[in-house]
Design goal:
With 373 residues, the protein is mainly beta. It is built from 5 helices and 21 strands. The strands form 4 sheets. Strands 1, 2, 3, 4, 5, 6, 7, 11, 12, 18, 19, 20 and 21 form a 13-stranded mixed beta sheet that branches. The protein is globular and about 100 Å long. The relative contact order is 0.13. The C terminus is likely disordered.
C-alpha cells in the first residue's frame, strides 16, 4: 500500500517505504483516527513526523500525525505514529465567534474566514447543507468538536475533510449523509449482513440502558430574592413514554432573569407618600421555558444498542455500502434483526491481509465519552 505524506502546506514529501500494520478507524459522528507502524528506514523517519498529513489510497479521509514513537529492540527499529483524521482539528478550537448556521460557525472559528491566528491554512468549508442550530450563550468558549458531534448526532450527518488535488491544492470540510440501504426501503439496493448470507465472519450484540433517559423533568430554579409570579416554569420531555420503557431524569436549570426599576413607598411627607426607586430581579418566564425545552429535549438519550461484526472486504465495500449508510443486520439464531446505521468501520492492514470491523448502531459509551458529561 502506497501511503503518500504531505506537509502542512500540502506539498508532497514522499511515499512511505513499507508498513508493518495500519489501523484506519472511520467514524460517522466524530473524527476517526489511525495508528501506523512502519520500519524506521531513513525515508520513513523523514516522512513520519509531527503534523504531516497521510493520504491512504481509495480513502476519502486523510489523517494528520499528532504522536510519534520510535523504538529499537530485538525485533528491529520501528516508527509508530498515531493521529486523527483532519476533521479532528475541530477539537483544537473553542467557540469564540458565534453563528446560527452550523457550517458557518465552523468556518469562522477554524477555517478560511477565521482570524489569521486561528485558521487552518488551506482549509475551506463547503456550506452544502443548511443547519440552523441556533446559538446559545452557554456555547461560548465550549469545544468546537464536542459541539459539532452533538449537532451531527441530532441531525444525523457526518463531517469529513477531503484533500482537493487541483491547481490550488486545498482541504475541504463538508457535511454528508448516509444512504438508506436497509430492507425497509425499495429505492436503493438492499444490504443485509448475516451468517446466512456468508458475509459476516463474527458478531457481537450489546444492549445497554446505562445513561439513557426517555423522560426528562426540567424545572427552573432561582434565588429566593428573585420574583416569580404564578407557577414556576417547568417542562416535561418524553411524557408519553410508559411502563418499562420510561426512564426518568430530573434537571434543575437556572432561570433566565431580568432587572427593572420599581417605585416603593418608603414613608410620608406630611400626607404625601414618599417613593424610592429600587432594582427588582424577576424570572423571564418565556425565555426560561425556552431554555427548559431545549435542555429537556437534549437530555433524552435512547438506550445503546450495537451490533459489531467482522465482515469480508469485497467489491461492495465503499461502492455498494459505506460509512454512515443504514443497513440491516440479521442473526437468525439470536433472533436479532436490526435496521441500523454503520457508525464506525475499522480497516486493519497487517501482514499483507486486510480485515474490516464495522459498528452498527450507536457505540456504547467509553470512559472518554463519559468524562465529557
Amino acid at each position: 500500500m502506497d501511503l503518500s505524506v504531505y506537509n502542512t502546506s500540502l506539498d508532497l514529501c514522499g511515499v512511505v517505504d513499507e508498513i508493518s500494520s495500519l489501523i484506519w478507524h472511520r467514524r460517522f459522528f466524530k473524527s476517526g483516527y489511525f495508528k501506523l507502524i512502519a520500519p524506521a528506514t531513513k525515508n520513513n523517519a523523514a516522512l513520519l513526523v509531527k503534523h504531516n498529513i497521510i493520504e491512504k489510497p481509495d480513502s476519502v479521509e486523510i489523517g494528520y500525525i499528532s504522536s510519534v514513537v520510535m523504538t529499537n529492540d530485538d525485533s528491529g527499529e520501528f516508527i509508530t505514529v498515531t493521529g486523527n483524521f483532519l476533521s479532528g482539528l475541530l477539537a483544537n478550537r473553542i467557540i469564540l465567534t458565534p453563528h446560527d448556521d452550523f457550517l458557518s460557525l465552523i468556518d469562522c472559528n477554524i477555517a478560511a474566514s477565521a482570524s489569521s491566528l486561528r485558521s487552518i491554512p488551506n482549509l475551506y468549508v463547503n456550506k452544502n447543507i443548511n443547519i440552523n442550530s441556533g446559538f446559545y450563550a452557554e456555547l461560548y468558549r465550549s469545544n468546537l468538536a464536542v459541539y459539532s458531534e452533538a449537532i451531527c448526532m441530532a441531525y444525523n450527518f457526518g463531517l469529513r475533510v477531503k484533500f482537493i488535488h487541483d491547481n490550488q491544492k486545498h482541504l475541504l470540510l463538508e457535511a454528508y449523509y448516509g444512504t438508506d440501504r436497509s430492507i425497509l426501503q425499495k429505492v436503493n439496493p438492499q444490504i443485509v449482513f448475516s451468517y446466512e448470507y456468508d458475509n459476516l465472519l463474527s458478531a457481537k450484540y450489546q444492549y445497554s440502558e446505562n445513561n439513557s433517559y426517555s423522560t426528562v423533568y426540567a424545572k427552573a430554579v432561582f434565588d429566593s430574592a428573585v420574583e416569580c409570579s404564578g407557577d414556576v416554569p417547568s417542562y416535561i420531555a418524553g411524557d408519553d413514554i410508559c411502563g418499562f420503557e420510561r426512564l426518568e431524569k430530573a434537571l434543575n436549570i437556572p432561570a433566565v432573569t431580568y432587572t427593572f426599576d420599581r417605585q416603593i413607598c418608603t414613608g410620608f411627607n406630611g400626607s404625601s407618600p414618599v417613593f424610592t426607586t429600587v432594582k427588582v430581579t424577576a424570572v423571564n418566564k418565556t425565555a426560561t421555558l425556552s431554555v427548559l425545552q431545549n435542555e429537556g429535549d437534549n437530555n433524552i438519550a435512547a438506550p445503546n444498542e450495537t451490533f459489531t461484526g467482522k465482515v469480508f472486504i469485497n467489491e461492495g465495500y465503499k461502492s455498494e455500502y459505506n460509512l454512515g449508510d443504514i443497513v440491516t443486520v440479521w442473526h437468525e439464531k439470536w433472533n436479532i434483526a436490526l435496521t441500523v446505521r454503520i457508525t464506525e468501520i475499522t480497516e486493519v492492514y497487517e501482514n499483507g491481509s486486510v480485515s474490516t470491523l464495522p459498528v452498527f448502531g450507536s457505540p456504547l459509551p467509553v470512559i472518554s465519552d463519559l468524562l465529557k458529561k
